[in-house]
TrEMBL record:
InterPro entries: YbaB-like_sf, YbaB/EbfC. The keyword DNA-binding applies. Residues 1-14 have a biased composition (Low complexity). Coiled coil: none annotated. Keywords: Cytoplasm, DNA-binding. Residues 1-25 are annotated as: Disordered. This is Nucleoid-associated protein ACFQU8_04735. Its main location: cytoplasm. Homodimer.
């Protein structure tokens, strides 16, 4: 019984190291999203930090600021969703079959 427990602990430690490595790799990734046919581009790191926002001059209309704000929000939410999806795909491989509540890795 003790041998099985030691073996299981070793496997858990290996899985933990792989999880940590996967998290580090995710944090180093860069994600981009656009809206308005590429008129607004938002770039974020895997750490969920917005690193760049580019707005085409063609979309800047002082009489329609609401549209510009909507385009920025759309691109920002899209890039954050991309990060979330990639994180779930990557980290989900470690939690398959564990029946953990959503969002728990």
């Amino acid at each position: 019984m003790k041998g099985n427990m030691n073996n299981m602990m070793k496997q858990m430690q290996k899985m933990q190291k792989k999880m940590e490595q996967a998290q580090e790799e995710l944090q180093e990734m860069t994600f981009e999203a656009t809206s308005g046919g590429g008129m607004v581009k938002v770039t974020a790191s895997g750490k969920r930090e917005i690193t760049d926002v580019q707005v085409s001059e063609d979309v800047v209309d002082p009489d329609d600021v609401d549209m510009l704000q909507d385009l920025i929000l759309t691109a920002t939410n899209d890039v954050l969703q991309q990060i979330e999806d990639k994180t779930n795909d990557t980290m989900g491989q470690f939690t398959k079959g564990m029946n953990l509540p959503g969002g728990m890795f």
